[in-house]
Amino acid sequence: MERKSNRTTAREAAARLRSLIEESEGQGRMLPVKKGALWHAEIKRQAGLTNGQIDGNSAIREMLVEHANKHGIAFSRRGLVAPEEDAAMPPDDHCELVPAARLREAQLRLAQMERKAAELRAENASLRAEIQRNSEVVELIALGGRITSGPK
Fold this sequence. Notes:
With 152 residues, the protein is mostly helical. 62% of the residues lie in helices and 3% in strands. It contains 6 helices and 2 strands. It has helices at 6-26, 40-47, 53-56, 58-71, 83-86, 100-143, and strands at residues 33-34, 37-38. A two-stranded antiparallel ribbon has the order 1-2. Strand 1 (33-34) and strand 2 form a beta hairpin. Helix 1 (6-26) packs parallel to helix 4 (58-71). It is elongated, with a radius of gyration of 38 Å. It starts with 5 loop residues before the first helix and ends in a 9-residue tail after the last helix.
């Protein structure tokens, strides 16, 4: 099956919409409307359009805008802002900001403490390894065996 190019798909979609508009105007009605604006979802369903073709295909968009203007309706109805997002933000209180010198001082102290923590972690690992070695020696002594050092 040969795949269609995007340009061909766009032309076919525009032709389907054009025939839908001509058919509805021929019957003396307009395209589906919801709350005073073109009902994009229903138009897409009736014309066999995919998501994004109304905004992505300039020919389709132009036809719909022209149809909406001709019938005195809105092209689309934009969503409303959620009430909590519509509230005015309180002005920033710059008095709560930390002075730059104090911030740099805190960053310097933090870097020093991080270096010290890394040193302590390394020392801790070294001491744990020494304790492990010492415990092995204690086990050998407890077994009562003699430890021989290499060949004599």
